[in-house]
Write a structure and sequence with these properties.
With 267 residues, this protein is of the alpha/beta class. It has 2 domains: 6-96 and 212-266, 3-Layer(aba) Sandwich (Rossmann fold); 101-209, 3-Layer(aba) Sandwich (Rossmann fold), CATH 3.40.50.1860. Helices cover 44% and strands 16% of the residues. It contains 11 helices and 10 strands. The chain has helices at residues 16-25, 47-65, 75-88, 101-107, 119-122, 125-134, 148-153, 157-171, 195-202, 212-225, 245-255; strands at residues 6-10, 30-35, 69-72, 94-95, 112-117, 139-144, 183-186, 207-209, 236-241, 265-266. The strands form 2 sheets. The protein has a 6-stranded parallel sheet with strand order 4-3-1-2-9-10, with helices on both faces. Strands 6-5-7-8 form a 4-stranded parallel sheet, sandwiched between helices. Helix 8 (157-171) crosses helix 9. It is globular. The protein starts with 5 loop residues before the first strand and ends with a strand. The model has no long low-confidence stretch (mean pLDDT 93).
């Protein structure tokens, strides 16, 4: 059991940011990453579609690799399907992601927080519940970033720059003075890959928060509780995709902290 891989999936390449954090936290583990690029982006699809794809991807990972845990490295898929996945796999350790609103509230001094996320995430019942529970503790500017994940998937630098400028402008004023947002929540696993572009507009004083490290730490806790942590080996990653393998190979070469050989990419 301890030698079995951990499954990780996203609608595309965004989950590679979470995979980086998982590999740093769990260097001895084996991972299978699935990019569902043939059906991306999830954030602009309906809940029923995302739930169906999430269940299909999870079933494929379980059948092909006998995974010992599953990380849903996608905010939209977590919001739409984590409850269904828990019902379908009651014994399998499952970790989802959600916009880090609670850590943002704890860190913010001005108590004004901007949240960038997909429309699917922001309109989900799961997010609305989280937001409502924290509404009295801070003021949140919620910005649906239509098209940004897709632009990152296609490495469209011109579109990325234009969308980052548009959505940061929509989020309001940034800074550390009263009335300014001093914290920016990256509510999609794609967005850490364009943090430098976002920083150009938010400024150097604004804290950026994503979910990679907390997800990796929670994965470690669940594996330890299940006595299934890998105790030996150098770790490895296998990459799979429902889309073009060369696209995932290029993204892995660009975004993974420790590169994975392209031969590991399977359709």
């Amino acid at each position: 059991m301890s030698s079995s891989p951990i499954g990780v999936f996203d609608s595309g390449i965004g989950g590679l940011s979470v995979l980086n954090a998982l590999r740093a936290e769990l260097p001895r583990e084996r991972f299978v990453y699935f990019a569902d690029t043939a059906h991306a982006p999830y954030g602009e699809r309906g809940d029923a579609f995302v739930a169906q794809r999430s269940l299909a991807v999870a079933a494929g990972l379980a059948e092909r690799h006998a995974i010992k845990a599953l990380v849903v490295a996608c905010n939209t898929a977590t919001a739409a399907a984590i409850h269904l996945l828990r019902s379908a796999y009651p014994v399998l350790p499952l970790v989802g992601v959600e916009p880090a609103l609670k850590p943002a509230v704890a860190l913010s001094t001005t108590k004004r927080i901007a949240v960038l996320a997909t429309r699917g995430t922001l309109e989900s019942a799961k997010f609305r519940t989280l937001h409502a529970a924290l509404a009295g503790q801070a003021s949140f500017s919620l910005v649906p970033c239509d098209g940004l994940a897709g632009a990152i998937e296609s490495s469209d630098a011109e579109k990325i720059a234009a969308l980052c400028a548009r959505y940061l402008d929509a989020a309001g004023r940034f800074g550390i003075e009263p009335g300014q947002a001093d914290t920016l929540v990256l509510g999609c696993t794609h967005y850490p890959f364009v943090a430098d572009e976002l920083r150009r507009h938010a400024g150097p004083s604004v804290r950026f928060i994503d979910t990679g490290a907390p997800v990796a730490q929670q994965t470690r806790r669940l594996l330890a509780a299940n006595s299934s942590l890998a105790t030996e080996g150098a770790g490895e990653v296998r990459l799979e995709t429902s889309g073009a393998p060369e696209v995932l190979a290029a993204a892995a070469a660009r975004w993974l902290a420790a590169p994975v050989h392209p031969s590991a990419v399977m359709a």
